[in-house]
Amino acid sequence: MPRKSLELLDQNNFFFDANRHQELNKNIRSIIMEPAFKILMGFEGPWWREMGIDSGHSITDLPMRQCYYFGTDNETKNSMLLGSYGDMETETFWKALSDDKVLFKVRAARSASLEELHKFDDVQATQFMVNELMNQLKELHGVDIPEPYVTYFRDWTDDPYGAGYHAWKA
Questions:
Q1: Spatial separation of the C-alpha atoms in residues 31 and 4, rounded to whole Å
Q2: 88 contact partners, CB below 8 Å, separation of at least 6
Q3: Dihedral angle of Cα 53, 108, 144, 55, to the nearest 10 degrees
Q4: Do β-strands 150-155 and 56-59 pair in parallel, antiparallel, or remain unpaired?
Q5: How far does the chain reach from its first CA to its final CA, in angstroms?
Q6: Which residues, listed in sequence order, are joined to residue 168 by a DSSP beta bridge?
Q7: Measured between alpha carbons, how far is 148 from 125 in angstroms, rounded to an integer?
Q8: Listed ranges 19-23, 34-38, 52-56, 88-92; the one with the highest mean pLDDT
Q9: Do residues 82 and 39 make contact, with C-beta atoms less than 8 angstroms apart?
Q10: 1-45 confidence digits (pLDDT tens)
Q11: In the chain, where are the structural domains located?
C-alpha cells in the first residue's frame, strides 16, 4: 500500500502505535513520496502519423516533459495521447493550472456520444491545462494540432495515493 494510504488508516490502534512499533513507524516514514500526474487526450485521428510517428514517445525540456502516442481505433480512427506525464519539479507548474475551476468541455466523437463523454466530466483537465498542453505539443512537433474531444487528468498526490511513485530514503 502507498504510504499515504497507510497514514489515512486509523492510527489510534495497537498496530500503528508508534511507542509499541517503532520499527514499523520508522519504515513507513522512510518512504519518499514523489508527486506525479498525467493528462490523457483523446483525438479524432492520430495527427502524429502525418509526421511518421506510429507509436512510442517523445521527450522534451518543456514542462510537459514527455508524451506517449497510444493506439488508434481501426474503425473510428479515434486516438489517445498521453499529453504529459509530469513529476518532481514540473509537478508544481501543472498543479497551478489544475486548481482552476473551468474544466475542459468534452465534445462528441465518432466512437462516443456526448452523453457517454459527460460521464467523465469530473476527471477532465482544466481548460488552462489543455490550452497550455496544446501550445507545448505544437512547439514540440512544429505543426498545428487539432483540439481533443476528451481529456483525463489524474493527480496522483490526491488521496489515497499521496504520490505518483514511491522510493526508499537512502
A1: 10
A2: 34, 35
A3: -10
A4: unpaired
A5: 20
A6: 31
A7: 11
A8: 52-56
A9: yes
A10: 777 887 888 888 888 887 888 888 888 888 888 887 888 999 999
A11: 3-32, 35-166
Closest CA to 37 of 1, 2, 83, 79: 83
Instruction: Tell me the longest C-alpha to C-alpha distance in the chain.
Output: 63
Beta bridge partners, 80, equal: 42
The per-residue pLDDT for range 113-168, each reduced to its tens digit, is: 899 989 888 889 999 999 999 999 999 999 999 999 999 988 877 777 777 777 77
Q: Is the dihedral of CA 30, 63, 146, 127 positive or negative?
A: positive
Q: How many CB atoms lie within 10 A of CB 164?
A: 21
- Give the predicted TM-score (pTM) of the model: 0.78
Domain 35-166 - what CATH class? alpha beta
Give me the amino acid identity at 50: E
